[in-house]
Design a protein that fits this description.
106 residues; 3 helices; mainly alpha
Length: 106
């Protein structure tokens, strides 16, 4: 975790504590005006664009997962059986050589 992340976390915590304190000191309810027609149209437009962006990103990630063969069986690798057998042979050799010291050493 870098120093920038720590500074950001401390700053956000301080702002949260400040708003919490100010919220407890508030005596009356705060009135909110309804947005005008222009602001409402702008909010709906931004919401529509964000939904479209989400769908594009979802499709892109799905395509990448498919292209990297993460959904189904990965393509065959001729090295994998040799690597597995070498790992098993190494374990058996180490277990055999350290049999006098117990299995916890192996």
């Amino acid at each position: 975790m870098g120093t920038d992340a720590v500074v950001l976390a401390v700053t956000l915590l301080a702002i949260g504590v400040l708003f919490t304190y100010l919220g407890t000191r508030l005596i009356g309810a705060v009135g909110i005006k309804r947005p005008g027609k222009a602001v409402s149209v702008f909010m709906i437009t931004i919401w529509s664009i964000s939904l479209a962006t989400f769908l594009v990103a979802f499709t892109t990630y799905g395509l990448q997962i498919y292209q990297q063969h993460l959904l189904g069986v990965p393509p065959t690798n001729p090295i994998s059986p040799i690597t597995g057998l070498c790992g098993l042979a190494t374990f058996i050799i180490i277990a055999y050589l350290t049999r006098n010291h117990g299995l916890k050493v192996a």
